[in-house]
Design goal:
Elements (H helix, E strand, L loop, with lengths): L6 E5 L3 H12 L3 E6 L4 H11 L4 E4 L12 E4 L8 H8 L5 E2 H7 L5 E5 L4 H14 L4 E5 L5 H4 L8 E5 L2 H4 L9 E4 L13 H9 L10 E5 L10 E5 L8 E4 L2 E4 L2 E5 L8 H16 L4 H10 L8 E6 L2 E5 L6 H9 L5 E5 L12 H7 E6 L4 H8 L4 E4 L3 H11 L5 E4 L12 H16 L1
Parallel strand pairs: 1-2, 1-4, 2-3, 4-5, 6-8, 6-9, 7-8, 9-10, 10-11, 16-20, 17-18, 17-20, 18-19
Antiparallel strand pairs: 12-13, 13-14, 15-16
Length: 440
């Protein structure tokens, strides 16, 4: 793709927007970035972009921009309903996403991973597996490094391993992964989508431009039909699939290919993640023994059922990455000790009633925080004692009052963090820090 003197607008000065702007500028475009926020951090970022010849418009002025651009890139984190976007929509603007923009400059095959839960872990598993098998790749996309930034490194790569969200897939028009991975689908982001079906349709776009020579690695339980590519299925429950589990043994068409005890991972959710990675190995003709090397070495990142301390015989686990109900349910299912659960956060439009029976089975007491605290208490109070807490410190104190030696305090919010924290990592870091202060 050649841009030459194209006039381009980028909506959003977050990490993805900045990466898109820099890529466009490197390719010769005249770039202006618009963001309706106006903070000292954004102004500092704008000053750095100015040294590259990139213009920036912040605050209310950005919401009144006149659209005279040949290319308009919409950052995935921006809600299409905000005035910044609606102003462009009223002027008949057509949007390209950061994911799509990067793909147009991509010269290497792509492995793309989506799903409600497990995307980051599986993306990193695949990255580690491929690198240890001698395949040059880098994890990018929704995982942290924007795809637009990774494009600069493509001369040193054989594949891109890209984590993709439903938000990113909304604005694709050519994005075609050679291997598309579908991990699972459960309710989430109902503050963004009209209903569950609209959310599902956005995620299904990962397969939209695949061809018969490509591969889809999919969770058999989700029963995806009509895919154009060759399909490799996995299933942690009884039922037909190419990849299955028997005890701790992961099997491909009945043949043992990986023992989970040789890895640093456990639980049903991680069996799914490992099988998805093995499906990619099969698609790329990587021998099982070579695939096992990287998969066995991988260790989970922070904020995913991470033990952060023990105080008077009570174990504290940080699962701040649990930003939806399915992730919370999987964290509860993996616990073998009595649980004091700290949950709650931003209202994303879904109910907590669906896991009430699991809460009744696993949880001694629930401590609830954030915008959803009262609604969760209404759902769970018939099955478990509940306490609402004003902030995280108050929640930890309440959890300690209700815990005995031998119990686990599980911080697994089940929704996102933006009502009280910068992001899930900030939320988890604060939890870890406060627990470690108690453990001194």
């Amino acid at each position: 793709m050649k841009l030459n003197a194209t006039k381009a607008a980028v909506l959003g000065l977050g990490t993805s927007g900045e990466a898109a702007a820099k890529l466009l500028r490197r390719e010769g475009a005249d770039v202006t970035v618009f963001d309706s926020a106006d903070s000292s951090q954004l102004r500092e970022r704008a000053q750095k972009l100015a040294t590259l010849g990139i213009k920036t418009v912040l605050g209310s002025e950005a919401e009144r921009a006149t659209v005279n651009f040949e290319l308009i890139v919409l950052s995935p984190g921006i809600d299409p309903q905000v005035e910044l976007v609606r102003n462009f929509v009223r002027q008949k603007a057509e949007f390209t996403g950061e994911l799509e923009l990067a793909f147009r400059f991509c010269q290497k095959p792509v492995i793309a991973i989506t799903g409600t839960n497990g995307k980051t872990t599986t993306t990193q598993l695949i990255e580690r597996m491929l690198q240890r098998a001698g395949v040059r790749t880098i994890a990018c996309g929704n995982i942290g490094m924007p795809f637009c930034d990774a494009i600069e490194r493509q001369n040193d790569l054989d594949f891109f391993t890209v984590e993709v969200s439903s938000f990113q897939l909304e604005t694709i028009s050519t994005f075609r992964p050679q291997v598309a991975v579908w991990l699972n689908f459960t309710p989430d982001h109902l503050d963004r989508y009209r209903d569950l079906e609209e959310y599902r349709e956005a995620k299904l776009r990962i397969f939209e431009y695949q061809q018969a020579s490509d591969f889809a690695v999919v969770n058999a339980r989700d029963q995806l039909f009509g895919l154009k590519s060759k399909t490799i299925t996995f299933n942690t429950y009884p039922g037909p699939a190419d990849l299955s589990v028997s005890g701790e043994s992961l099997r491909f068409r009945g043949k043992p290919v990986l023992d989970m005890k040789s890895t640093n991972l456990s639980g049903v959710h991680n069996a799914e993640n490992l099988m998805a990675a093995l499906g990619v190995a099969h698609a790329l003709n990587i021998p099982w023994e070579k695939a096992a090397v990287g998969l066995s070495e991988y260790r989970l990142l922070p904020h995913r059922c991470e033990q952060v301390g023990e105080v008077n015989g009570v174990v504290f686990i940080n699962d701040s990455k649990a930003t939806n109900l399915d992730a919370l349910a999987k964290a509860l299912e993996s616990q073998s000790r009595p649980v004091i659960l700290i949950a709650g956060g931003k209202d994303k439009g879904f109910q907590f009633d669906s896991i009430a029976e699991l809460v009744k089975e696993k949880v001694k007491h629930a401590v609830l925080i954030g915008e959803m605290a009262a609604r969760i208490e209404h759902s769970w109070s018939p099955v478990v004692g509940c306490t609402q807490a004003a902030d995280l410190a108050d929640a930890i104190a309440a959890a300690r009052r209700n815990a005995n030696s031998g119990d686990t305090v599980l911080f697994s919010p089940g929704t996102s963090s933006f009502d009280m924290f910068k992001n899930y990592a900030d939320r988890g870091n604060q939890f870890r820090q406060q627990v470690q202060e108690l453990a001194k």
